[in-house]
Amino acid sequence: MQELIEIRRAAKRNVFTTTIIGVFGLLVASQLLIWLPKSAYLIGILLTSFSIVTLLVAFFKFREPLHSFVLSRKTLYFQHKSGRWQLDWNNVQRMGVPRVAKGLDYQELSMVGIKLKSYQPFLAHISPRLITHILMEQRPLLLYGQDREQCNTGNCYGADLLEDDYFKDAEGNTYKGIQAMLANRMQKLRMRLGFDIFIAAGELDRSEHEFVKLLKQCQQHVLVDQTSHI
Known about the structure:
Blueprint: E1 4-8, H1 15-35, H2 41-63, E2 67-72, E3 75-80, E4 83-88, E5 92-96, E6 99-102, E7 105-108, E8 111-116, H3 120-124, H4 128-137, H5 148-152, H6 158-161, E9 166-168, E10 174-176, H7 178-193, E11 197-200, H8 208-228
Antiparallel strand pairs: 1-2, 2-3, 3-4, 5-8, 6-7, 8-11, 9-10
Helix pairs in contact: 1-2, 4-7
């Protein structure tokens, strides 16, 4: 295993191209607003709006760190504009691509899931700002595993949006506030999807299955090295 393996964030692709498109669109829109008759101003306004949105997308892409993951012999390290978290390889119980039932078949989600052995090390190294981002980002996952009859009446979603602000893990550690909310969310999603942490495909530079394969290879190398030194 290499000393460090860096995973480039897919969302960082085409930042320069997106910026050029936005700037070019604004230049064209300004000329249209100058030369077109007032009856055709709507075209210029629509193009201006499109260009501004494109520049905003480029701005948010630019703010993201270049690499989403750094894999070392000790840790699995994730970084985001809202914060970061890290895991020791020994604390990872299982990794895979989450699946949900769809009729008689199963459908894979466009993400990677990680199941932990203990919540405490993870919760100890994650910023409150990133916790807030995760709680918001994972809301769509709450729909999986819901009672279908309740969802048809529109009553399945509201109760799941808010998490309890108190949590006690299996080791007796207690958490309050936003840490407890994340822990309760992780436990809820573990029951429904089998994993605690979920990584969107946009954070990766390869397919979900290829990333899972890489993680398993890294973990295996680390565990073998640790065994050989005992």
